């Protein structure tokens, strides 16, 4: 009897189509992965929360408060049998296009950061359920507005007191600074208001002692207030800039007296609270207005400061060589577009985050630069584009107004960044150094391979 070859049973059309789709998906995944690997521009992705806090509000700034237990449980239920830690942020806002008729608010926002994602990233997930590990890595942070304080004028910037984190300050376009105590009963949060000037301003920050509050203004002056005193008048007023003063930052670990300012005249100016005149002036190279400036908060490198201007130039300098053009020791990075806000990364392991700078741009793009490998004291280094680029966040679709990182060493929120944009979106995401290797490797995220799809 001749051998008869049996044909395999016919396959279901849906099964064939499914496998074909999966093959195409994997092929596209590998192709895009290869392109990104070749370009060496990592995409940062972990959990992302994209929340429109209020459809009528434009968000203008955000600060991440230090985590404090305050009698609350360290970990709270998150989703299913997963757990997380509750963090709080202060967000500034205005009525956007309806600012003339809608009030502005300072918002106290709560978000639950998933604990399981941290554990997996740091090699040692306490869970044995592999499926739960995958679910945790795809989860979003859970965010909601806990309280809101109405302010008459649109908010430009917010900050908090380093020794009393529940005490916040908000700068508005009407020339006022409002102090808000979140420990007060709802409706009684406003504890003081300073009349700074008749113009708007953006720079506002407490010194490390939590006593002196520095405020910049478009009238070209810098004022310092003693928030422990009863007087509404500034204890010192400084004038040097020839155009509006934009940003301000206090130097950490230096007797709480030294701070820097930047402005539309392109200058970065160092001040000492005990002296009436600047102690150093660094004139801008490109004659472009400098939008923001920040001292490094880490004790190992308190002399480093970063500034950014309207042309996208990000410059890291050593303030011990700040005078003149400040070229004695610097790193110059060319960002894509105008830089609107910046922060040094904080929290986590100091040696890992002390050299990372987070910048927000007018395009909505947020970039993280690691300047450690490029830092050579006594030399000038002008970098181009992605020389020190550690990663990019593409989540925002409009003007990025503010960014913040957790200020305390909280391993659950290690590497997290909060950023806000003009159309009212608050996003909370994590700087993930494994980046694409994690995203394309162990976790199946084939359906989220483009920057836009990765976030929503």
Question: What does it look like?
Answer:
The chain has helices at residues 13-39, 115-121, 130-138, 350-353, 435-440, 451-455; strands at residues 49-52, 58-64, 76-77, 83-94, 104-114, 142-151, 155-160, 167-172, 176-181, 190-195, 204-206, 212-216, 221-226, 236-239, 245-250, 258-263, 268-272, 280-282, 290-295, 304-309, 313-318, 330-334, 339-344, 356-361, 366-370, 380-382, 389-393, 400-404, 416-421, 425-430. The protein has 456 residues and is mainly beta. A hairpin with a 7-residue loop joins strand 17 (268-272) and strand 18 (280-282).
Q: Secondary-structure blueprint of this entry?
A:
Blueprint: H1 13-39, E1 49-52, E2 58-64, E3 76-77, E4 83-94, E5 104-114, H2 115-121, H3 130-138, E6 142-151, E7 155-160, E8 167-172, E9 176-181, E10 190-195, E11 204-206, E12 212-216, E13 221-226, E14 236-239, E15 245-250, E16 258-263, E17 268-272, E18 280-282, E19 290-295, E20 304-309, E21 313-318, E22 330-334, E23 339-344, H4 350-353, E24 356-361, E25 366-370, E26 380-382, E27 389-393, E28 400-404, E29 416-421, E30 425-430, H5 435-440, H6 451-455
Parallel strand pairs: 22-26
Antiparallel strand pairs: 1-30, 2-4, 3-4, 4-5, 5-6, 7-8, 8-9, 9-10, 11-12, 12-13, 13-14, 15-16, 16-17, 17-18, 19-20, 20-21, 21-22, 23-24, 24-25, 25-27, 28-29, 29-30
